[in-house]
Amino acid sequence: MKKIYVFLFSCVAVLSAVAQTTPNLYRAVDKAKMNHWVDSIFDAMSYDERVGQLFMVIANPKSDTRNMQRLMRYVNEIKIGGILFHKGDPVMQAEVTNRLQKTSRVPMLVSLDGEWGLSMRLSGTTRFPKNMMLGAIEDNDLITEYGKEVARQCKEMGIHINFAPDMDVNSNTDNPVIGLRSFGENPQAVADKGLAYARGLEGQGILSVAKHFPGHGDTAEDSHYTLPAVHHDRARLDSVELLPFKRYIYDGYAGVMTGHLYVPALDKVRNRPVSMSRAVVTDLLQKELGFRGLCFTDALAMKGATTRKSDNPSVKALLAGNDILLAPAAPINDFAAVKEALEEGILDREEIEAKIIKILQYKYIAGLDDYRPIETKGLSERLNSPHAAWLAAKLNEEAITLLKNEGDIIPLKQLNKKRIAALSIGDGVGNEFQKMLGRYDSIACFSISRNSTAAQVQNVYKKLEKYDVIICGVHTVRIPESLALHQLAAKKELIYAFFTLPYFCKEYKSSILKAKAVIMAYEGTPLARKYAAQAIFGGIAVKGKLPVSIPTLYTAGTGMFTEKTRLGYHEPEEVGASPERLDVIASIVEDGLEQKAFPGCQVLVAKDGMIIYDKSFGYFDYDKKQAVDENSIYDLASSSKAAGTLLAVMKAYDDKKFTLNNKISDFIPELKDSDKKNLVIKDLLYHQSGLTPTINFYLNAIDRDSYKGSLYSNVKNRAHPVRFDARTYVRNDFSFLPGLVSFDRRPGFTTEVAHKMYLHDSFKDTIIQEIKDSRLGVRGKYKYSCINFILLKMMVEKQMQQPMDRLLHDTFFSRLGAWHTTYNPLHIFDTIQIVPTEYDGFIRRQLLRGYVHDEAAAFQGGVSGNAGLFSNAGDLAKVLQLYLNQGHYGGEGYLSKETCRLFTQSKSPTCRRGLGFDKPVAGGGKTSPCGSLAPISVYGHTGFTGTCFWVDPDNNLLYIFLSNRVNPTRANNKLSSLNIRTRIQDAIYKAINN
User: Fold this and answer.
1) Which of 299, 623, 971, 989 could pair covalently with 933 via S-S, beta carbons 3.0-4.6 A apart?
2) Which residues are catalytic?
3) Residue span of the signal peptide, if any (predicted)?
């Protein structure tokens, strides 16, 4: 009786183990419906169709006659049960799949060898990271999300099986075939990552296949070309190689691929691949570990699967216990060999029929009972979804790993005190890494290639001597460390970024030990390069941990964390914004371009410290010879007030150089004996001082005896041939006073107005006199005036005892890394980088390119309180983020929180204006400068040349629009009449409130 109880207990235990390891997809299906479908298919199948289910062939996804004839032969003659495509094009593969499925009487399983998604095999699809990079990610939920997205793309392609995850524990640094395909060297971590990936795949109905059982990680040979051996005892195999597979099986996933490996501890027969071993496939995998899913061989055409000439590999693989024969070298011959083995009794017919039924069951599970052709229209767009783009970016961001960070050099700080160079080893100047570095500061770029001569290399290192920080990107494993690099690391602050397999770092050990910081980016993809650059400057927080050990340098698990300190570049989904709704911006811009409201523009949107939209459109002018890009520099016009002058005012306020109730005459004594003597600073900032909107200072430089009649006319005529604005024409036959204007630079004439046009330095006295004599309107009433800010600039310069442009550069722009932002940009930049504004046929009689458009600012030498600042959208965003961060940026303080709050939150009691900033009209309306969806908390400014920016503290949002709508003439007012800027702003709010 005791023996009976023991026997019953054993049966229950076995049944319980089977229940625990039966794949989840199998358990979840309606068994009655599945069995009904399987029975009906099986009963209707011919003998050949049944045997054919065991075969999954590799094929080219090409529709040429020769290829299709070969594939049709596989379908018609050996009745293949499945197919695995080589590399190709998604649409072509879809078309071939549809044709083959239509031909096959029993729908086929379509598989993907997609360890890192479709892009491993299909061009033009989202490039996700390889497994070793994923192994650096701490958040496994993100790996599951990745698995879900790969599954979604598989469904779009009519794919049912993905030969992933790779569960190999890569413990051999010389492994020639696994390497980046492995999640790492820690068995538990590999299991965690692999299970997360499988969970995502199978959660969406795609069968996962763990490989290469029992573990290909500790080999120094490639099974594609030979039979690698794994010489570990069973205890080691259980604790390392087998552990991820055990967890995969016990968690109930569907597929396992057996590897072509020789493992003496599991099979004593010399040089027998485990894929051909019944002791491994049947006894270990299926019986001992309880695996009940589909068992695939690795590709049988590989050299590691080679058997004795008298043995057929497909027959041997079936004898071992495999269910599906993947990629036999000679499918038709192998099909015949399997049939012969069945007829001769070498293969057990019942056992093979059980496999066929299992395959049919998984076809039902995969949805082939309701097969539908792939929809090829719009396929590429569906595959390359915005969510896929976000996910690829997010995985790269989370994986960046900081291995060394002496003195917390990363993120870089005090940019104004560092001369920075970027050295590219193995790639050219201007790659994605260097370009992204250039978005954060002025970077001198150099490169060394395999083809560089010794003299060229020496010249590069000589030039690097004058820089303080060297950011060295290593993009190849084919250029060894040099003595010059070691010496450079010893003298300079060297930061390494490796875009290679981590093991390669050991080749640079000498200089790594001297370097200040080391970043591991794992791959040389554009995304890896972009996020590595952002990590260096604090555009992202660094979170990754090294998944493998680098001998003599770093152990697995190494990884230092940093905080985000600067703006980063991300996909819209990162902040919950709708990419599709943001795309409306492009259609609005295109409307403006088509109607010639402006020749080109930059549009930037940032939310929560992340730039989610940064695009350039159109050209510098209507000749369309030079396209706008992110480095194009625009005249900000009146936006200079809030982006430049107001920064200086806030700094002076922070330093207690004035109070808001101070009189402007306290700082500009020339006004004390005028009706401006009692004007207070606060009213100037609110534009309610009563000062006239503008003063044409240039009239004082014109020789009034050089012409007769009026300078202006409301109609075009012979005397007034030049259009000035929409309603005014001017003459251009007058002369300038020779005592005030010179057409060459000489002593006394150093104030540059335009190209070869200089003003006498005494003209500044004329300007203050003109302001003093100007008519004063009603104080306390809103009237926008450039004169307010001209006076504020004068006050700041006197109180801070330095020119405003120098103050802004030294205190803000150079520290922010806003290196495109400056007054008089021609002193720094080449003309070709600066977007031209108007052709001035009146005063300066030339195309204005690099010279301020505003005449008042021009007659002050290009540096004025009302205008004169030039910048691009990327740099301007840094200034605005400083406001949004309440005075902090890049880990450094610039202004006090109190001052920032005061200036950005205050509002005039009598109008919409803030302290220097413009604000929306409460309730919106046509008079509001903002879109109808902008909250009342928004602050910013617009510019006459076609610019604007708005900061929204409620939504932590920045919006920048830069254009040159005045090119070629300021008479063009379509930018306003088409409401381009406000329509874009409303589109942004619709996108972020998705």
Assistant:
1) 989
2) 298
3) 1-19
